[in-house]
Amino acid sequence: MEDMRLLFAIVLCTFLSPSFSQNLMKERIWKLDGRKKSIYHKKGVFHLGSQENASRLMGIRHSYGKVRGYERIVFDFETNGPPRTYGHLSESKRKLYIDFFDSTIDPSVQFPGKSRYVKSVNFFPDGEMLSAEITFNDSIDAEMFFLTGKGRFIIDVK
Q1: Distances (CA, A) of 5 to 13, 16, 18, 19, 125
Q2: pLDDT band at 50 (very low <50, low <70, confident <90, very high)
Q3: 3-class secondary structure, 128
């Protein structure tokens, strides 16, 4: 009887696990642009494959403008452009996952103050890649783009 329960548990884990995983192939995939377009997304996969040089995240800031109608979150990098970036916006989990390749983080960087939409921001440095996880208070629409000069990755949330 004990062997039967163990076998049942193994079969259950083997066949049910894939059914609960995310299928990113069904997600919309878009390439980030170097300007604001006012096109907001609820979910999807995004990428920016430009910068090949190592970069360092120097700060993160945010501001909400009632007249604008959105909150802007800015990741400031020390290089002239943002690093190569991949990410996933999950509507169901109310999270934004971002990977900045060939990037490190200044130890003093933390999400400043209270935010209208952001519940938390967590960073996960791993060698030459920096991952960030932004958790939102509620379901959001987001537009992401980058600016050069001083590299900035920008997220507008409404």
Answers
A1: 12, 16, 21, 21, 41
A2: low
A3: coil
The answer to whether 114 and 128 are in contact (CB under 8 A) is no
**What's 4-64 look like in SS3?**
HHHHHHHHHHHHHHHHHCCCHHHCCEEECECCCCCCCECCEEEEECCECCCEEEEEEEEEE
The mean of the pLDDT values for the chain is 85
State the DSSP H helix or E strand holding residue 2, giving kind and residue range, or none if neither. helix 2-20
Q: Which candidate, 123, 142, 156, 136, places its Cα nearest to that of 56?
A: 123
Amino acid at 79: T
Task: Give first-to-last CA distance, the chain, whole Å.
Answer: 55
Q: What is the pTM of this model?
A: 0.80
Task: Give residue 28's pLDDT band: very low, low, confident or very high (50, 70, 90).
Answer: confident
More confident residue, 11 or 154: 154
